[in-house]
Amino acid sequence: MIIINYPGCSSPNADVVFVLDGSASITISNFRKVKLFVQDIVDAFDVSNKTVRIGLIEFSRSAAVQFDLQQYSNKEDVKRAVGLIPYFGQGKQTCMYT
Known about the structure:
Elements: E1 14-21, H1 28-43, E2 52-59, E3 63-67, H2 75-83
Helix pairs in contact: 1-2
């Protein structure tokens, strides 16, 4: 990940939304790896209501907002919430039809 600090800016502001595949297309083991990856990425940000806000959506047969951009205001709470996200393991909605 590359984070660029511009002159005069102490921290970049951003809204970051992760989208996780919780379908049967991936195994529960790989789903856990993805959650660890998300937690590692979150560690790189200065999470707060005024700097970087984090949201997360999980999809399988349908999409579910696990938490929105305003729910958590620090990285510890975001990482805890990511760790608690359940694996849906339903459907395989990742293929495209032509």
